[in-house]
Design a protein that fits this description.
The chain is mostly beta strands. It is built from three helices and 23 strands.
Length: about 325
């Protein structure tokens, strides 16, 4: 059986005197109404003190809670406590769990008074966070600094600090490209800002490139008509910007027809011969010392001709005999 508190016992005794007050009321007040009012008041007080006494066995807890904030945005959170007012919470502490030893930078942690009768303090988090991240914190509430047992309650809260709302910007613009006709060209942009970020590539400033909506644009194969400038519009719901333009230079594809070397001539320690050259082709001279058991060795790479015409080649004599050949690369 639950032991009654002192207030209900006192009120029970006072209620035993109620009939006497009712009989005396005509003498004292000339009527019965005041005595009846006294009885009603006593019954009301008895109900109040009985309710307070009955709450002494109820529970107090801090439920798990999640709070969302953004870097640079002033915020104020009050941690909820399920409380029966059977005792007063006056000491509140915060212990970081993840990351260990770290509370969200820019926030202050303390308590706020939410009730003056009875005096009730709730955990409070306020301030302007400066570092994004997810923080798990243990909240401990005590009746006083020396409280133990059921006078100490713990709960876990999670504070998620998101990056601020930032418009899309270009961190690294696309770079110029020089390719040969028929080759491949790739442009890449690096954007910053709040996600998600959208992309749209443009040719020569104003022409939208269909389906070019990624951070990377690849042209393959490249045609001579693809030469020009390429830029990209990066945007999110907070704003956007164009990247600087990157220029694509396309060199015509070099076609080298079959050719023969001219009759070689010896000049002291060098051998000289000629061949029909094609502009922008790359020519490599190779030497073979024997038809069996030997491999072709590169002895010289010719300067790339800027115009087509006869090229004269001088190479050092290697060994007492051998063979020379010239290969071409467009």
């Amino acid at each position: 059986m639950k032991k009654l508190g002192s207030y209900p016992l006192i009120l029970a005794g006072l209620l035993q005197l109620a009939p006497l007050w009712q009989n005396l009321s005509p003498i004292i007040n000339g009527g019965g109404a005041p005595a009846i009012s006294i009885i009603r008041s006593l019954l009301l007080l008895a109900g109040v003190f009985g309710s307070v006494d009955a709450l002494s066995g109820a529970s107090v807890s801090i439920p798990n809670q999640t709070f969302n904030a953004k870097v640079g945005v002033k915020t104020n959170f009050v941690v909820n406590i399920i409380q029966d007012f059977s005792y007063t919470i006056s000491v509140i502490t915060f212990t970081p769990i993840t990351p260990a030893g770290t509370l969200p930078a820019g926030f202050t942690f303390g308590s706020t008074e939410v009730s003056t009768f009875p005096i009730i303090f709730y955990p409070q988090i306020k301030g302007t966070p400066t570092t994004a991240g997810t923080y798990v914190i243990r909240v401990t509430a005590k009746e006083n600094a020396t409280s133990t047992g059921d006078r100490v309650i713990n709960g876990t809260i999670t504070v998620i600090v998101a990056q601020p709302d930032l418009p899309a910007t270009v961190s690294t613009p696309p770079a110029d490209q020089v390719v040969t006709e028929g080759g491949s060209a790739t442009f890449t942009v690096v954007a910053a800002g709040s996600s998600p970020i959208s992309y749209q590539w443009y040719y020569n400033t104003n022409t939208v490139i269909p389906k070019a909506t990624n951070a990377t644009l690849t042209l393959n194969p490249v045609a001579l008509s693809n030469a020009g400038t390429y830029s990209v519009w990066v945007t999110n719901k907070f704003g956007g910007t164009f990247s600087p333009s990157a220029r694509l230079t396309v060199n015509p594809k070099v076609v080298v027809p079959p050719f023969s070397l001219g009759t070689p001539t010896k000049n002291i320690d060098q051998i000289q011969f000629s061949l029909p050259g094609v502009a922008n082709a790359v020519y490599t001279v190779q030497f073979l010392s024997a038809l069996k058991g030997a491999t072709w060795q590169t002895v010289k790479t010719l300067p790339t001709p800027t115009t087509s015409g006869i090229l004269t080649v001088d190479v050092p004599i290697t060994g007492t005999q051998g063979w020379y050949r010239v290969s071409s690369t467009p």
